[in-house]
Amino acid sequence: MLLCEGLNKKMILTDIHCHNAPQDGRRFILNCGLSVPSGVQYASVGIHPWHISNDWERDMRIVEAAAALPTVKAIGECGIDFAKSSATADVQETVLHRHITLSESAGKPLVLHIVKGQEIVMRMRKELRPLQPWIVHGFRGKPEQARQYIAAGFFLSFGKRFNTEALLATPLDRIFLESDEETAPQIEHYTRVADILSLSIEELAMQIESNCSIFGF
């Protein structure tokens, strides 16, 4: 629980994707890579497309073991990146398929990193028809892209940099907020987004708290 300056009550401000454990009292899901360090309350595990090695099957077995931990609330980040990943398209898709299978078997949402790979991810979702929620993390796309993801059933998570019109095009019940690698206080991010959406910070916090039910909090 985070007591926000200038407010009369405590609110839960959730950061669903971060790479460094924040110290401002927010509730956060730490992206841990292959395994979960001791002391982490909420975590996600997965192979980032930048980090797909030649021995990715061994790495995947480590992720699969970690996914059974109650502290692990999501699978990922994983996905498709045709800008920076050195892995081939076929390998990236195979690794993503393993993560999707794990998400379904573990009953935990999938956190996706997608760069120039939207068509592949959309196709896989249509073919596989997953039951678990899929979240596009760090979404920076345009409104039309946001609408396409929403129509296909995705959630969108917005970090510091995003397209304002895309945020406005996203239904409130499909929005998450994240810091990724940013270190600014979470209240600043909530304040900015709430202002754009013409909501109070309390209203935004309550909506995202409701959305977080997919993580089993």
Observed structural traits:
217 residues; alpha/beta; TIM Barrel; 8-stranded parallel beta sheet; two-stranded antiparallel sheet; globular
What does this structure look like?
- Strands 3-4-5-6-7-8-9-10 form an eight-stranded parallel sheet.
- Helices cover 35% and strands 20% of the residues.
- Helix 1 (56-66) runs parallel beside helix 2 (89-106) and helix 6 crosses helix 7 (201-211).
- The model is unreliable at 1-8 (pLDDT under 50).
- It has a single domain (12-215), classed as Metal-dependent hydrolases (TIM Barrel), CATH 3.20.20.
- It contains seven helices and ten strands.
- A hairpin with a 6-residue loop joins strand 1 and strand 2 (10-11).
